[in-house]
């Protein structure tokens, strides 16, 4: 339980050439989670600083997916954080499955009156960092090095880092740390192993992630369920399209030259009556291994994990950024409430509240992975049951409604 009383700080941080500062909250990471937490704190007049290891240009241009659920867009807009999203995002109302040589359109907006927004993560990050740093005057420090967390078992933790300009070691004394620094950050590993449990799942599947300078061949997301492997098309903009191809985990992108990529995409996304794929220049090729993890609890002392720092869901169901935003709304509100009114209820319940949705989305991702990859498993029984599930989506209103609810995240709206 978070206690409102603060005890004397025990300084165990390194002291060489150190400059000390005081902040109420230190936010690690300037992704969607960290910037959302920072903006919520600024709106509540809570003193905070955001530390980011990369440059501003890098975070504003780093390629990332961009499917945002409607509840998240509404919440961003309510808080004045939607930026250009309402005007520039593409509104999606359906997806399309292709299997057994046929096209099957799934009009989820007709079933739920809800949509998906396609707004690439770099654009959202650009909006959020502008709001935090340029509009609300928030303190954000880019290019920091050697970030280390100290005294997490006290109620006065500290964060030290090396200034990229001077090489000087700096120490931030604080009341809380928001660990929003992603899968490769330092926050998660700062929690002692005996104080956390990490559940992991490796699907044994790879996806070749591609960006092509071509317009989408259809107006919606495509899922190709094929004996040769899964394929997907995700519109990013009128000029750029994201494609995925199932491949062996750890595969070398060099094994996928231009002609092989387009041959496989044509085969796996082919269906009767489907328009031909528009082919063009591939501007990105990388292999993603489908794996997942969840850290429990998402809190240790005055450190709270959010987004990929605490849980990773493979891009199978496009849930990662939505989970990060959900965490950030809860954490930002809970920190603001505690600092401004002394109410620690939100912080005490933060981990449990986040994990309920995390596990719900993980379960859906696993279910969808079985759908995507079952036909290509080499197991005739699994292939048969996969096709049965797919056919049920288009023949059973109850099955369609359940899928739409999970796909859109409407059951667990913020």
Automatic annotation (TrEMBL):
Coiled-coil positions: none
SUPFAM superfamilies per record: FAD-linked reductases, C-terminal domain, FAD/NAD(P)-binding domain
Biased segments, Polar residues type: 1-10
Gene3D superfamilies in the cross-refs: D-Amino Acid Oxidase, subunit A, domain 2 (3.30.9.10), FAD/NAD(P)-binding domain (3.50.50.60)
The FAD-binding domain, residue ranges: 24-364
InterPro entries: FAD-bd (IPR002938), FAD/NAD-bd_sf (IPR036188), RIFMO-like (IPR050641)
Any Pfam family hit: FAD_binding_3
Keywords: FAD, Flavoprotein
Signal peptide stretch: none
Region Disordered: start-end pairs: 1-22
Classification via PANTHER family: P-HYDROXYBENZOATE HYDROXYLASE, TRK SYSTEM POTASSIUM UPTAKE PROTEIN
Protein name: 4-hydroxybenzoate 3-monooxygenase
Species for this entry: Streptomyces camelliae
Species lineage: Bacteria, Bacillati, Actinomycetota, Actinomycetes, Kitasatosporales
